[in-house]
Amino acid sequence: MKFFQKHKFKWRPFISVGLFFTLATLVTTAIMIKVFIAIEYDVPKALCVTMHALTGFFVFPYLLILHLIVNWKSLKSYIPSIRKRTLKRHQFVSVGLFVTLVLLVASSILINIYEAKNDIGETVENNLLIYRYTIVHTISGLIFLFLSIFHLIVNWSLLKSYLLSVWNISENRAVFAAFLVALCPILTAILLVLIFFK
Description:
Layout: H1 2-6, H2 11-39, H3 42-70, H4 72-76, H5 79-84, H6 89-120, H7 124-154, H8 156-164, H9 169-196
Helix pairs in contact: 2-3, 2-9, 3-9, 6-7
């Protein structure tokens, strides 16, 4: 019992490393989806789509919300800069990440709505809307990736210290927990594809 009282769980490394792993999963699966669509290979495409959806809907948003809560004080300080139009680079990146995240979520929800309508009865209008929202989703995903890389570069020393501190017991638990959280949708997707593509 003394061990857990002495070594408190640290949320900041958990959130940062979890976001890093889930973003890597989202980017990798997005690229693989495009490749498997191009070569018309259904089983790996289904696996990648499932991983992308589970990670994008269930893990990544919650880690982002935790990230916003942990960093709320610094994010709140950006609001006067937005009004005065005097954003610094890191402030611009944070605001840009938020805006592109909203576009990603909205376009993803709209794509799923129109694909569900296509299941009922396919129309040209639905296909056109799916195509448009897929373009918005892809472009905003690329912008989000670019801004995330810049955000990662700005905060690399902090993330690196989390990843290298695996010998520190309290931070080791947080990094390991983040890895497991990022791994859950991948394993779930593999199981789902194995069940449905027997």
